[in-house]
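step=encode ok
step=design start
structure_in=
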């Protein structure tokens, strides 16, 4: 009996020894679930493109979800148990510290969602919530019991994410079943899909292409069929691209993957064409057709967790600090890879492996893949979705790279342009990047000629949608006032053997592109399409639809013409001149020697240039691919809306005004390439006042950050 009693007591002690850590672990799991798992699973479950676009496998997603759900609690519990080996009392104290810290993290998100937007109140409120939870768990047994039971919530969050969100179709993908087509064509197809590119960017007042600024688009128009009045159906890439590649409207809520859009350009040509395909924001080409070189599991998960961390930081950061984080609304991945950190050395180098700069790697591989069509060989589909001139706008028209701490242009909160002059500056940066996009198009045309494909291939060039740059309006969410900017896009089709270009002014939409490609190749599309061939069919589109916004075609076309007049009034046509370096009423000063202007006594105020720009202004290496423009920094003692001029090497190089964000007064001055010289640049800044025709300039003390 004594032996049996001893065994029972030993078992009881062992159960107690394991029960307490299990309870503590359950409590940590409960609070960490609300602090980490629930907010991340909620936002990523609603935006499963985060996983789809990067090609995450079901295993990647499940492993990611398990780590998010359980790793924080297990790590903290492991620390507690390690401390407990030394002293149990300290381990218990540490447990309540961890509970409080996790509750504070949850608290800052709850307060932010409730509308609290100042850093002090968010931090103070979060600390108060954390202390309250820690004290309640320490002093009130029922609270500890409640937290233990609440650990089941983390399992619910995990299950909802994997089985009841948009992620489910990626974790449990269905087979791709596409209808086969009879294809006998020997015509190569070259499809260059640009991104975020309104047709007005290219135009003069007469509606033709500005050949001085965009010589290669003008050359393309002279030898192809230009559908001048093409509109898209969506201003969201992951919706717009499937429309282009299927000939049908988007499936509501569907991810841009092959199982949702099995009938597409790639499956149409798969039986007869070789595929050289690069999709950057979709996965419509099934893996059995497009054999992608998959990254290692290590690199996939590293990228996944890195980007998830940035998404989470946006959830918890106070609004005043959120602007310092890498933007997460320019793409679906690799958010933090081009924030300027690699440009801070004394002699900075461009990191060609970063996402935004590295998009040129896809382009270079694309044009290098062109090869002569051999007799009796299967033709090739060359397809590239190139994120140009899509933001961030980091290229000048000459192809130099903007060395900036933050690649995102100021003046926008989410979709709203809250500052008209900063929206204009973003527009300038966009148009300059369109200029470099024209250079890339010229390289494509040159390589096609060199490979003997130019006159043999069907060449298609268009973007997926447009973008808008107007103060107090939205960037890409469609409204009645920005509809024409988003809807109208340039579409060119160079037919095989076509040498004399023509312009088609019929209203066509991106639904009509795939049926037209099939028409040129002599293919009967084996599925129903709402689009029709733009060459032999009769497109009938009396309205313009972008997302949920619809308007009569005639009224949207009239709006487009008004927008073009506004654009030309700001930026003119022809050369890339000083109109791309100034905004507001004093922009006419750009290019004038400082010695000819009305310079008054200096102000006892300072302008502090940021570290990246300061380094290059002190010593710009000869032949550097970088340019420190815009010159950005802070103004400790001025007011919002104060007009400013930047002078470089004796001439006014840029004009804009001060603005406030993140609790600081800032400036962003977009100087042109030609304003900088090799070596040290002479930098001066002035406050502008007085009449537009006779401004007064008062100099600020410029501090270059070391």
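sequence_out=
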């Amino acid at each position: 009996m004594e032996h049996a009693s001893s065994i029972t007591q030993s078992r009881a002690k062992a159960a107690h020894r394991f029960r307490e850590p299990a309870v503590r672990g359950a409590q940590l799991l409960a609070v960490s679930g609300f602090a980490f798992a629930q907010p991340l699973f909620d936002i990523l479950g609603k935006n499963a493109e985060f996983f789809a676009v990067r090609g995450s496998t079901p295993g990647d997603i499940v492993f990611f979800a398990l780590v998010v759900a359980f790793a924080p609690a297990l790590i903290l519990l492991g620390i507690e148990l390690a401390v407990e080996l030394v002293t149990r009392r300290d381990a218990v104290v540490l447990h309540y510290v961890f509970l409080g810290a996790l509750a504070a993290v949850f608290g800052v998100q709850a307060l932010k969602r409730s509308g609290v937007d100042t850093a002090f109140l968010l931090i103070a409120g979060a600390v108060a919530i954390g202390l309250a939870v820690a004290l309640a768990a320490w002093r009130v047994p029922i609270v500890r019991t409640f937290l233990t039971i609440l650990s089941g919530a983390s399992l619910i969050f995990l299950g909802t994410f994997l089985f009841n969100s948009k992620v489910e179709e990626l974790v449990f993908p269905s087979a791709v079943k596409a209808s086969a087509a009879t294809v006998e064509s020997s015509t190569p197809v070259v499809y260059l899909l640009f991104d975020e590119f309104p047709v007005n960017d290219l135009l003069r007042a007469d509606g033709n292409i500005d050949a001085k600024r965009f010589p290669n688009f003008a050359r393309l128009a002279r030898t192809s069929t230009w559908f001048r009045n093409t509109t898209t159906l969506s201003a969201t890439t992951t919706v717009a691209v499937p429309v282009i590649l299927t000939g049908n409207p988007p499936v509501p809520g569907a991810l841009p993957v092959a199982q949702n859009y099995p009938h597409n350009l790639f499956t149409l040509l798969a039986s007869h064409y070789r595929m050289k395909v690069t999709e950057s924001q979709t996965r419509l080409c099934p893996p059995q057709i497009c054999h992608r070189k998959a990254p290692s599991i290590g690199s996939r998960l590293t990228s996944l967790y890195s980007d998830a961390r940035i998404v989470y930081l946006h959830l918890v950061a106070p609004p005043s600090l959120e602007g310092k984080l890498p933007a997460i609304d320019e793409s679906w991945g690799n958010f933090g890879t081009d924030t300027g950190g690699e440009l801070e050395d004394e002699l900075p180098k461009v990191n060609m492996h970063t996402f935004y700069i590295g998009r040129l790697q896809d382009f270079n591989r694309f044009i290098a893949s062109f090869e002569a069509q051999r007799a009796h060989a299967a033709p090739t589909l060359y397809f590239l979705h190139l994120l140009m001139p899509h933001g961030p706008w980091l290229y000048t028209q000459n192809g130099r790279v903007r060395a900036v701490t933050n690649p995102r242009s100021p003046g926008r909160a989410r979709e709203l342009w809250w500052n008209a002059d900063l929206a204009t500056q973003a527009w300038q940066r966009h148009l300059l990047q369109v200029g470099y996009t024209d250079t890339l198009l010229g390289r494509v045309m040159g390589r096609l000629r060199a490979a003997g494909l130019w006159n043999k291939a069907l060449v298609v060039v268009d973007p997926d949608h447009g973008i808008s740059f107007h103060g107090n309006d939205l960037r890409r969410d469609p409204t009645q006032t920005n509809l024409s900017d988003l809807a109208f896009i340039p579409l060119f089709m160079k037919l095989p053997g076509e040498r004399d270009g023509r312009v088609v002014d019929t209203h066509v939409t991106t639904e009509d592109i795939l049926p037209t490609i099939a028409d040129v190749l002599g293919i009967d599309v084996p599925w129903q399409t709402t689009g029709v061939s733009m060459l032999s069919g009769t497109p009938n589109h009396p309205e313009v639809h972008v997302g949920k916004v619809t308007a009569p075609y005639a009224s949207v076309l009239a709006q487009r013409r008004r927008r073009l007049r506004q654009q030309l009034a700001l930026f003119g046509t022809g050369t890339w001149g000083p109109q791309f370096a100034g905004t507001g009423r004093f922009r006419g000063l750009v290019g004038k020697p400082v010695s000819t202007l009305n310079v008054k006594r200096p102000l006892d105020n300072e302008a502090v240039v940021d570290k990246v720009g300061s380094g290059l202004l002190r010593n710009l290496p000869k032949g550097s691919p970088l340019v420190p423009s815009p010159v950005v920094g802070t103004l400790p003692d001025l007011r919002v809306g104060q007009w400013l001029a930047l002078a470089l090497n004796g001439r006014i190089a840029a004009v804009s005004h001060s603005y406030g964000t993140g609790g600081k007064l800032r400036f962003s001055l977009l100087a042109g390439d030609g304003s900088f010289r090799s070596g040290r640049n002479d930098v001066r800044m002035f406050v502008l006042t007085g009449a537009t025709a006779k401004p007064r300039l008062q100099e600020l003390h410029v501090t270059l950050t070391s």
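step=design ok
step=annotate ok -> DSSP finds 19 helices and 23 strands in the chain.
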